[in-house]
Give the backbone structure.
Amino acid sequence: MPPVFPLLPPRLSGLVDLASNLSWSWSREARQLFRMLDERLWARGRHDPLRILAEITAERWAQCVADPALLATYDAVMAWHDTERSSDNTWFTQAFAEQRARTIAYFCAEFGIHHSMPIYSGGLGVLAGDHCKEASDLGVPLLGVGILYRGGYFDQRIRLDGWQEDIAVQFDPARTALEPLHGPRGEPYLATVRTFGRDVHIRVWRLRVGRVPVYLLDSDLDENHEDDRALLSKLYAGGPDLRLRQEWLLGVGGARALRAVGIDPVVWHANEGHAAFMLVERLREFVAAGVPVAEAMRHVRATSVFTTHTPVPAGHDIFSVDQVAECAGPVWEELGMTREAFFALGRHPANSSGEFHMTALAIRLSRSVNAVSRTHQLVTRRLWACLWPQEPLASVPIGHVTNGVHLATWMSHDIMGILDRRLGAGWAAREADPQLWERVADIADAELWDAHVVQKHALFFRIREEARHAFTRRAREAALLVGSGVLLDPDALTIGFARRFATYKRANLLFHDVERLLSLVTNATRPVQVIFAGKAHPADTPGKQVLQEVYQSTRDPRFEGRIAFLEDYDLHLAHVLVQGVDLWLNVPREPMEASGTSGMKAALNGVPQLSTLDGWWAEAFDGTNGWAIGRAPPADGDPEALMHDAADADAQAAEQLYHVLERDVVPAYYERDAHNRPVRWLAVMRAAIRVAGAHFTSRRMLQEYVTRYYVPAMLGAAVPDDPPAQ
């Protein structure tokens, strides 16, 4: 049941249903409506409409129902909300009308849909959120299955010495848009999964993301053993045993929960190896129905899609055979297989028989496997060519769908306003047409620069307000304010670097030659300043050490306050950063960036990127839309040609980085016309919008998934290759 708000006037009663479906979060008109209710609460509540509805006073409600402009906006938004309940006029219905009643199940370990629900840690979750939002926009009959981490990921607190502290965060589902589902006799759980010798009951919550329902699993029930209630409470917490249990409950419990609510998907998409046990449960279902195991395996493969996001061997989930046997019990008996045959499904030819590889399992039980960029496809083929020992590398059946980002979520109101004027009404419906984006060249310098200045000022306002709140909470640690960004200059060239702090992402590359960096940031007439944000995984000590190194530079007086670190990076802060900085920096070691999407988000807002030629940037960079360092992927498809001594690679990349900043970036930004506008820089901004809009949105991405993978599986197209070798 949705929350109850006793003060809400009947004239505005539809606000509850509107706020309970997260489609409001990517509707400009819906966001404006909630802002009109109480702009102060909207800002203080971090754009959470349910919180606003709970805190508005009776006096303010009376003012709202007497405001003609607000009521007109309300009526228009509610009319739009009603149209979102139907899929009649969507792209999918028009293109594949005969498939509209069929369902695609999209399993992922995390979903980053809105910052009010911290059940995501980074790029994988945010991509899953964008995937669902775009499916809603296009009318793709997709649903999501994930985990409701009541303990969220973690809040980040930086100590005076720069060390990251991981603060547990809890959120109350009753104060969110989540709807609990119940069993046929009113029981609070929909599925039961046996693991480590005990039955674990699974509660299911439904979250509406436009037309797409996302089902989130939870084990915090009185019916469960005390030790099992917290199994699904924390994202990527604990050691391998806990992670294995979470993945078993996600795959098996998620499939059983869908059956419990009467959903029979035609296509099953495992987004990363965390979800691979879903394929085992489907295999068990077929065998339980009397289908021979070999035929059951063909059925599962024919309707399964697998996406891998991990370009390095160490990033794939590997468990011991004994761990899996203890977690799953003798599941091979239910499958009509020998123990050896079952564990062979997860065997990597280069590893011992004592290891069970989740990615290998997913590859063997899926009809199609895709990487998330063209470069990542080369890397992934090399990683997994051992499963097709008779195939040349170029023929290994692993494709790619380069990631994209949800335009309506990530493009700012100001940039959208420009496109409204330049591209015409309804341009968003034509977003997938590359020719549309050629007209970005018509945007006037003054129009684009004024919009960017507004976005930049919004970022600096946010920095000051967060510093004010931090001072209130932690007055005894006032020295932290030095690194919070309050000393930054809104007129200086501002570089943004925000992502997970892992060593390969090289957040500290700028500090390779401190004297060279000092000459950039302390230049009296052309200063450069840098804003960092991001979290290190709680178990990643080297990543925390890099973060500490970066943070300590913010308090080094030599940098004159021009290096800042923004604490507790999340989706809300990400929006402000990708819209408000001048340049986006991304310098991973090649070829370790599977795709990367933060630079796409920045580009949609006219913020160019300076990056190594890896992931999406190897496809996107054309010499006009930003800057590049490093080496392009080898034409022969051998990514190992890029893997050389890390210290040498870092030194070369740092030298190139300083050179590009000094020779190209800084001069382009500070070269101004008579109106104090950076004409050369503005040309790069327009190109960034054009390329990202034409080729790197989730609309293009999802249409590729639909046409190349989902619909062929729906139509029963033949599986194009034999099962990989065991």
